[in-house]
Automatic annotation (TrEMBL):
Residues 1-34 form a coiled coil. The chain holds residues 442 to 705 of 705 of the full protein. Residues 41-261 form the Histidine kinase domain. This is histidine kinase.
Amino acid sequence: SELEARVQSATAELAEQNEKLRRQAIQLEQASAAKSQFLANMSHEFRTPLNAILGYTNMLLQGVSGEMTPPQRRNLTRIDSNGRHLLEVINEILDITRIEAGRMPLHLSDFGIPELLQEVMAEMDPIIARSKLTVDTRLDEGLPGVWSDRQKVKQIVLNLLSNALKFTHEGGVHVAAEYQNATGTVAISVKDTGIGIDVSNQEKIFEDFQQVDSSPTRAYGGTGLGLSICRRLAAMLGGRVSLQSAPGQGSTFTLHFPRRARRT
Ligand code: ADP
């Protein structure tokens, strides 16, 4: 009948549309993978010569080629600090492309939060000492052992802590860990008494290259990639990073993640 014929042709058209969309999805995925691969290769190719530049700069700064005049030393110090900034950007882009390309695997293991935080503190010790701020940690009594990716949790906390120190001029930083039994999640928070963040910027700063102040004359160093990496790493753990802040009132960044990660 005519109706049957119309249904048939509509079905055929839908199938064709479906196939077209499927092909487009594959093409998009391939383009995205190609982009990630290109960025990964590029970052890698940049790293080798940059390490050589930094190596020679340091040799010169250490005086291996004789004493330098103060202006020479000043200029060389600028080369060194710009070179190190570039290396940081490259390493962070490499991290992001690895995550996006699915080439940053999860390494799950049993570990304790207290030991992990102790390790973070020890690593940050020189920076904490230079900051002249006090950093204390408060651990929940009933903090259980966790099954997650230790290195990723550590990288996130290191990042949050170094931001807290960078954006705080007086007062201190409080690191706290607690376990929420009802939801089975661990929360590690880093609270500072620093400059704080306006609500209008609180989402933006988790995006790639986004900083509250990105002007060439900005007062703080950094790349604007740290929090976007934290966000991606937290997602890999099945968790997230939340933020509570107000200008002049300090900020609290909290990593929430399941005590027992699920393999994806
Ligand atoms: P970076 O610190 O390298 O600029 P991030 O992605 O770690 O990059 O942070 C993005 C921006 O978020 C920072 O430039 C800063 O404007 C803001 N920010 C992050 N942490 C804090 C903090 N603890 N206090 C105030 N502002 C912060």
